[in-house]
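Forwarding the complex inputs:
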Amino acid sequence: MDRSDFTEKKVVFEEKMSWLQEKLQQMGSLVEEAIANSIDALKRQDLELARAVINGDDIIDNLEHEIEEKILEVIATQQPMARDLRRVVTLFKMISDLERMADYATSISQITLRIADQPLIKPLVDIPRMAILSQKMVKQALDAYVREDVELAAAVGQDDDEVDKLFGQIFRELLTVMMENPKTITQATQLLFVGRWLERISDHATNIAEEVIFLVTGEKRNLNE
Amino acid sequence: MDRSDFTEKKVVFEEKMSWLQEKLQQMGSLVEEAIANSIDALKRQDLELARAVINGDDIIDNLEHEIEEKILEVIATQQPMARDLRRVVTLFKMISDLERMADYATSISQITLRIADQPLIKPLVDIPRMAILSQKMVKQALDAYVREDVELAAAVGQDDDEVDKLFGQIFRELLTVMMENPKTITQATQLLFVGRWLERISDHATNIAEEVIFLVTGEKRNLNE
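Prediction (whole assembly, two chains):
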C-alpha cells in the first residue's frame, strides 16, 4: 500500500469513526434520559412515564445492535490496526455498558409499577441525588472518550465514590424506617434495590471511564475502590 | 491470495481459536467455582473461603485481559471475515459476561463478611439451589458456544425462568421473616441482595446463550422473559 492509499484509508476510517461517535452520543443521551425519567417517575409515582422508560428500552437495544453491526463492518472492511483497533473495541465495550445502564433504568421503572398501589413511605431525596450524579457520570465518561481526556475520566471515579456514599446513607436510613415500622418493609426493600441499581449504573459509567484511561494511557487503572 | 495461502491462514486462525476457547473454558471453570464457593462460604459462614473468593477475582480479571489482548491480536493479524469475525466477537462479549459474574460472586462474599457477627437467621435452602442452577447455566452456555449447539443454548433460558421463580420465592419468604421479626431486617436485606446477584449471574449466562444463538442462526432471540 503506498502512502496516498494509506492516507485515503485513514480518512475513510475517521469518517466511519465520526459516524460511530455520533451514534454513541445519541445512545448516551437516550440512556441519560432513561435514568432521569425512571427516577422522576418513581418520585412522582407517574406510571405512564415509568411505562415509557420500559418501552424505550427497545430503542436503546436496537441502537446498540446497529452500532455493533457497524463496528463489525468497520473492522472487516477497514482492518484498523494497533491504536485504531483499540479505539473501535473500546467503543464496542462502551455500548455494552450503556445498554446495561438502560436495563437498570427499566428495572427501576418496573419497581415503580410494582409499588404503585400505595404512596411513598417517604419523600425521595438521596435517590434523586444519586440519579443526578449517575447521569453526570455517564455524560462525562462519554465526553472523556470523545476528547480522550484522562483527567475527565478520572473525575468520573470521584463521583462514583460519592454515589457509593449516598447509597450507604440510603441503606441505613431505609433499614431504620423498616425497623421502626414493619409495614414499610415491602416498599423499603424495593427502594433499596433502586439504590443498588443506581449504584450499578454508576459502576458502568466508571467502567467506561477506565476503558478511556486504558485507551489513552495503556494503563489499567481501577477507579472503583 | 491463492488457495493454499487461504487454507494456511484458516489453519492458523483455527489454532488461535482453539487456544482462545481453551482459555475461555478455564475462565468459565474459575467463575463456576467462584459462584459455588461464594454460596458455600455464605451457608457455612466460612470467612476464609469468602476471602478466597474475593482475592480470586484478580485472577479472573487478569485472565479476561489476557484473552482480550489475544482477541485483538487475532483480529489484527488474522483479519477474520464474516462468520469468523463474529465468532471472535462473540467470545469477546462472553468473557465480559463471565467477568461480571465473578464480580457478583465477590459481592456475595463481601456480604458474607458483613453479616459474620451473627448466626444466619435461617438455614439457606433456596439460595444454594439458585446457585447450583446458575453454575449449570454457565457451564451449558459455554458448552453451547463451543459446540455451536442452539438447543443447549435455549435450555439455558429455561433454567433462567427457574432461577427467577426461586428468587421470587426467596423474596416473599424473607419479607415474611422481616415482618415477623424486625431484628432480622439487617441480615435479611443482605440475603435479598444475594438472591438478586444470583439472578444477575443467571442473566449473564442467558446473555451468553443468546449470543450463541445469534452466532449460529443470525437470529436475536430473547430468552429472558
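Chain A has a mean pLDDT of 93.
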